[in-house]
Design goal:
Elements: H1 3-13, H2 17-21, H3 24-32, H4 43-55, H5 61-85, H6 95-120, H7 151-172, H8 180-206, H9 229-232, E1 239-240, E2 243-244, H10 255-260, H11 268-275
Antiparallel strand pairs: 1-2
Helix pairs in contact: 4-6, 5-6, 5-7, 6-8, 7-8
């Protein structure tokens, strides 16, 4: 649902909302006359500002908390790819460098979008944490210490971060169910994270780094192994909304196919536990 539609729904329930802001004409001008001059990333900022002026309050703290949670994950991914692209000799020249650079830039766009959305909604964006991409809780000697010198390990960590990010965004959908604009933005990011995960998986396959599919089968790590197994646990479910997908509709649908057809969400606590070793 776009910003104008949200405001129209609000105005139907509260005809005086635009009087509180100033006038309906001026409010609409902020979203239409300036629309061509202001980037799409500013829409959450404008929506938050309008609601704050109209009602004297910001969106619920839970929504701000979700956005800051997402921002922390985007910081993690952006800094990971930034360090990778700054590591001479790590990524092969050509298509691989182009792909990882593009993914890095997507993550930066997500960071800046979320910071703008949080500020516009009256919240304060969390600061960027210090990261230890070795997975060693600040020691620099964790199991992934060679991720920026070993291309195979780098792609394995990238795949795990992207797959976890997809599940993390899905896990927040229920917390945003009453915030249509924010939910839409989160889903837009979620789908791009899924594209990243698929592409990184195909890069691993192209380099013979494992028999990797673009999707997750059961709770298989794609050949990475026990170090990241917790990131994939729970993906083996074959039921959705209490409906058994195996052989549904009389069709020959295996347990593997049933699990591949749906991704499973992760809660905030689960995600934070999974990335804890990377955050100092």
């Amino acid at each position: 649902m776009n910003t104008l539609k949200v405001l129209n729904i609000i105005s139907e329930q509260d005809p005086e909302i635009f009087d509180r802001i100033d006038t309906r004409r001026k409010a609409m001008h902020a979203f239409t006359g300036l629309g061509k001059k202001i980037a799409l990333i500013s829409a959450p900022f404008m929506l938050g500002t309008v609601l704050n002026k109209a009602y004297g309050q910001a969106p619920t703290s839970s929504v701000i908390d979700v956005l800051n949670f997402a921002l922390t994950l985007e910081y993690l991914e952006y800094e990971f790819y930034l360090q990778a692209t700054n590591s001479a000799g790590l990524i092969p020249a050509g298509a691989a460098t182009s792909a990882i650079t593009t993914i890095r830039n997507h993550e930066l766009a997500h960071v800046n979008f979320l910071k703008t959305a949080i500020t516009g909604a009256g919240g304060t964006p969390v600061g960027k944490p210090n990261f230890d991409f070795s997975g060693g809780n600040g020691t620099g000697t964790g199991p992934f210490a060679a991720a920026f010198s070993n291309y195979q390990l780098f792609l394995a960590v990238a795949q795990t971060l992207e797959d976890t990010g997809v599940r993390a965004y899905k896990g927040q959908a229920g917390n945003l169910i009453n915030s249509d604009d924010v939910l839409e933005a989160a889903l837009n990011i979620h789908s791009v994270e899924a594209r990243h995960a698929s592409h990184v998986r195909q890069m691993r396959k192209a380099n013979n780094f494992g028999d990797v599919k673009p999707w997750i089968t059961g709770k298989d790590t794609g050949g990475i192994g026990a170090l990241v197994q917790a990131n994939y646990d729970g993906e083996e479910l074959t039921t959705q909304a209490d409906i058994n997908i195996i052989n549904i509709g009389g069709k020959n649908i295996s347990a593997n196919a049933a699990s591949e057809s749906f991704d499973e969400p992760l809660t905030t606590a689960q995600v934070l536990a999974l990335v804890d070793a990377f955050i100092v």
